[in-house]
Each structure stands twice: as structure tokens, then as C-alpha cells.
Amino acid sequence: MKTNFKGENPILIVGPTASGKSDLAIKLANKYNGVIINADALQVYKQWKILTASPNHLEKSQCPHWLYGHIDIGMPYSSGQWLKDIKKALVKAKEQSLRPIIVGGTGLYFQILTQGIAEIPDISVEVKDQADQIQTKKGKHAFRKQLEALDPKILNRIDLQNPVRTRRAWEVLIQTGKSLAIWQDETPAPLLAINDCIPVKLDCDTEWLNKRIEKRFDMMIGLGALEECRDILLSGLWDEKHPSCKAIGAKELIGCIKQENTLEIAIYKSKIQTRQYAKRQRTWFRSKMSHWNSIKIDKV
Questions:
Q1: CATH number at residue 235
Q2: Long-range interactions of 162-171: CB distance < 8 A, separation 24+
Q3: Confidence class for position 141, pLDDT limits 50, 70, 90
Q4: What total of structural domains would you count in the chain?
Q5: For residue 102, how many C-alpha atoms fall within 13 Å in the half-sphere facing its CB?
Q6: Beta bridge partners of 204
Q7: Which of 161 and 257 is assigned the larger pLDDT?
Q8: Helices 79-95 and 107-115 sit at what angle, rounded to 10 degrees?
Q9: What's the Cα-to-Cα distance from 289 to each of 82, 203, 285, rounded to whole Å?
Q10: Domain that holds residue 85
Q11: Is 12 in contact with 200 (CB distance < 8 Å)?
Q12: Which listed residue, 136, 168, 223, 253, has the most CB atoms within 10 A of its CB?
């Protein structure tokens, strides 16, 4: 589908990893006097530059890039905090007469941007500790089983295969005594209404995307992804359980550094995980963003 980018409406670009979102965003930013605003949950971290495919110096020199690398690894950062940050970025863009081009692969960010986010109280240390104990004793899928018994309202609202989402739903229920579904139903108006934006969803052939994924990961290794992981490990910032350390390939490359596996095995496993992640992204986008303009990508 051809999409009309004329006007001043914010442009939203979502797509699976390695599909060419950044290249498209830069072209549009240069054409429409735009600023690229990050909507990727891992590219916000300062120490991840290579392994998260964060824009490099050359790309950043072509047009303004905001909300990239502004958080230190290990610091708490939520989707709610991102929403606060992008609200400030949108105000700044308006002041500077720049057209917002919001790009990334984190579907949840776009969801809360255009649908709003529930004003849920912070989860206490006690509840988080309780969740840690459950996860340690019964495994990461224990929360899904408990939700099935305690909170059936939320079952069709979240990705039940995602242990981060099921744990979050469990914590909200225990902390507030209310289902996450109820909090979601009480969500205030969104920061950007979807009808006031130009939402674009990139689609592509699976085989074409898989080849790009493999080529890009090889390129990351060549650019120093292993050294990037080593720096993070040696600096004491590595924490496998922290959301900031969930970059695909990080665990495998750290294992290589620790001599727990070979570089060849780390690369092989990382490529498989990236393909699996891209598949999950595309499934999520089809389910949650069926009304978005879809653009078929077969070359960049």
C-alpha cells in the first residue's frame, strides 16, 4: 500500500528487526524536515550501540536522533518512563518545527503511545521479592499458571508466552488487588491519537528478512559486538536478569567471553534467536496493528 507522507502529522514506523526501519526513517526525515525518535526498548541504553543496531555516528549526522542511548544499563526504565520521555521530545520537536518520525520494533511502545497507558502504582520491593522467590522456585512460567487461576480477565490481554508480561500482570494484581485488565480499561486518553498520525507497518518476505538478519549479525561481530559485551562484563554492568541485558546475542557472546562456548556457537544461536524474535514481532504486529498502513519491503 502506498502511504501519503505529506502534511505535518507524526509518522510512526514499526517493523521486525532488520527490516530496514532506520533507513526508511532517515530518508523521510531528510525529505520532511523530521526528527527520528526512538521506540526501541533496548536502544535507549547507552552502553548498547552495536548489538542493538543503534544508529551510528554517520546515521545520526544525517538528521536529528532523539531518545537513543540516554539511559545507563542497569537503571530502571519502563514503558511508562519512555512515554514521559517521548512527551517531552514531541514538545521539543514542535518548538523546533521538526516533524516527529517515531521508529522502532517495540510494539508495546506504539500501543501505549496511541492507546494510552494505565496509571498503575509502583510495585513495591516486597512484591518484587515475592515474585523473585516464585520465579526461582517454580520457574518463569509460574505466573502464567497463577494468573489462569487468579485473574482470567487478563488472559486475552497479554502475551502469555512472554514471562515478563505474565510476571508484570501478577505483580499488579498482588500490589493493587485489581486486575491489570481493569487498570487498562481505566486508561486515560493517549498522547497521540492514531487518526492524527501516519502509522506504517513494514512487511517483508521471511526468507529475505532471515538473510538480512544473518548478514547484519555478522556485520555486528565485525564492528565489535564481542568487545562491546566484554566491556559491559568487565565494567560490572552485566546482569542477565535485568531488562537492559536482554539484547539478543548478549548472553551467548558473554558465554563465549567466559569460555562457556565458542564464538561460532554463540553466533549460530544468536542468529536463530533473532529470527525467532522477528517471527514473534510480526505475529504481534499482525494481531495488534492490523489497521496500520502496510508497506511491503523487498529492498532497502
A1: 1.10.287.890
A2: 163/135, 164/243, 166/141, 167/131, 167/135, 167/140, 167/143, 169/143, 170/131, 170/143, 170/146, 171/123, 171/127, 171/128, 171/131
A3: confident
A4: 3
A5: 27
A6: 297
A7: 257
A8: 70
A9: 20, 12, 5
A10: 11-117+189-204+281-297
A11: yes
A12: 253
Three cell numbers written together for 36: 527520528
Place 241 in a pLDDT band, splitting at 50, 70 and 90. confident
Q: What is the Cα Rg of the chain in Å?
A: 20
Q: Give me the amino acid identity at 19.
A: S
Amino acid at residue number 76: P
Measured distance CA(262)–CA(220) in Å, rounded: 17
For 63, the grid coordinates are 538528521
Alpha carbon 259 to its chain centroid, in Å, reads 29
* 39 and 167 assigned to the same domain: no
Reference 11, options 296, 201, 188; nearest CA is 201
pLDDT, mean of residues 243-255 = 96
To which residue does cell 525467532 refer? 276
Which residue do the cell numbers 539478543 mark?
248
Q: Which residues pair with 102 in a beta bridge?
A: 12, 37
Whether residues 76 and 112 fall in one domain? yes
Residues 215, 174, single domain; the answer is no
Claim to verify: residue 93 and residue 232 sit in the same structural domain: no
283 vs 285: CA distance, rounded Å? 6
3-class state of residue 46 by DSSP: coil
Cell reading at 77: 526504565
235 exposure class (CB count in 10 Å sphere: 0-12, 13-18, 19+): exposed
3-state secondary structure 176-221: HCCCHHHHHHCCCCCCCCHHHCEEEEEEECHHHHHHHHHHHHHHHH
pLDDT exceeds cutoff 70 at 2: no
